[in-house]
Write a structure and sequence with these properties.
This protein is of the alpha+beta class. Helix content is 58%, strand content 8%. It contains 14 helices and 4 strands. Strands 1, 2, 3 and 4 form a 4-stranded antiparallel β-sheet that branches.
C-alpha cells in the first residue's frame, strides 16, 4: 500500500494556502482518494506547536522516515513529560542515524533545560566515537563532535565546562561557533573564571608562538563577552605580549571601547 500526498503550492513563499488531498494505492491496483482540504502555512506552523499524544509521540519516534522522527522530537517542546521521561527519549534521539534528529534533540535539551543527557554526552565526547555507520569524512566527524559540544552547553550543567574546554584543544578543526554557543548557554560565573585559569596556564605558549592556536582565540573571544575586570586584565596582557599580529588585530576588532 502506498499513500501519496498531493498539493499545488509549488513555488509558494511567505504566507501560502493550497488545496491538498491524499491518494492511497493498494497492491491490487485499487486507488482511493480523499476529498480536497484547504491547507495554509499557518496550519503547518500551528502543527509544530500543537500538543501531541503519548501514543502518537511514540509512533513518531520509531518511524522509519527520519523526517517524521525529527518532527516528533521537535514536538517534545510541547509535552509535559518529566525530566526522566524526556531524558530517556533524548538518549535514543541523540543516537539516531540522522543528524537532523540529533540536531532537534540538542535544541530540546536547550529549550527544556534537560540535564539528564549530559553525562552520556560527556562520556561519548571523551571517548570520541561519533555514531556514524558509514566511513565519515573529516567534515562529518567534526560536525558530529561539534553538536555534542553544543549539547553539553545546552544542558546548562556547569560541571561540563572542563569537558567543553578540553574538547576545544583536542578538536581544533571543529567550528568555533559550536564552542561559543556552548559557553554562552552555560551562562555561569564559573565559565570566565575557568577560562581565565586555562589562559593563564598557557600564557607563555600564547605570547611566544608566531601563530596562536584557534582554540585559544575561541576562548579569548568567549571571555570578551563577560566584561569583568579580571577578564579584561587577562585579555590586555595577551594583547600587549602576543607575537601573533593576526591574533591581536582580530581580537581588537571584536573588543569594545573599554579595551582601547
Amino acid at each position: 500500500r502506498r499513500v501519496l500526498f498531493r498539493s499545488d503550492a509549488t513555488g509558494a513563499c511567505g504566507y501560502w494556502e493550497t488545496r491538498v488531498s491524499a491518494l492511497a494505492i493498494f497492491d491490487d491496483g485499487t486507488r482511493l482518494s480523499t476529498a480536497e482540504e484547504s491547507l495554509s502555512s499557518r496550519d503547518v506552523a500551528s502543527f509544530a506547536t500543537s500538543p501531541i499524544s503519548e501514543q502518537d509521540l511514540q509512533k513518531g519516534l520509531r518511524h522509519k522516515d527520519s523526517g517524521v522522527r525529527r518532527s516528533s522530537v521537535e514536538r517534545l517542546d510541547n509535552t509535559n513529560l518529566s525530566d526522566p521521561e524526556l531524558t530517556a527519549i533524548l538518549r535514543v534521539a541523540l543516537r539516531d542515524d540522522d543528524w537532523g534528529v540529533r540536531r532537534a534533540a540538542v535544541d530540546v535539551i536547550r529549550s527544556k533545560h534537560v540535564k539528564g543527557t549530559a553525562p552520556d554526552l560527556a562520556a561519548a565526547l571523551i571517548k570520541y566515537h561519533p555514531p556514524l555507520k558509514s566511513d565519515p569524512n573529516k567534515y562529518e566527524v567534526n560536525k558530529e563532535q561539534g553538536l555534542r559540544v553544543e549539547a553539553l552547553g545546552a544542558s546548562r550543567n556547569t560541571h561540563f565546562v572542563k569537558n567543553i574546554t578540553d574538547a576545544c584543544f583536542a578538536d581544533q578543526d571543529v567550528a568555533p561557533d559550536y564552542f561559543n554557543k556552548a559557553f554562552i548557554d552555560l551562562g555561569s560565573p564559573i565559565v570566565p573564571a575557568y577560562i581565565r585559569a586555562v589562559l593563564t596556564q598557557r600564557v607563555n605558549q600564547i605570547t611566544t608562538e608566531a601563530k596562536v592556536p584557534d582554540c585559544i582565540s575561541t576562548l579569548v573571544l568567549v571571555l570578551v563577552r563577560y566584561m569583568d575586570e579580571p577578564s579584561i586584565a587577562v585579555i590586555n596582557k595577551l594583547l600587549t605580549e602576543s607575537a601573533d599580529a593576526w591574533f591581536v588585530n582580530g581580537l581588537m576588532t571584536e573588543m569594545p571601547d573599554v579595551f582601547y
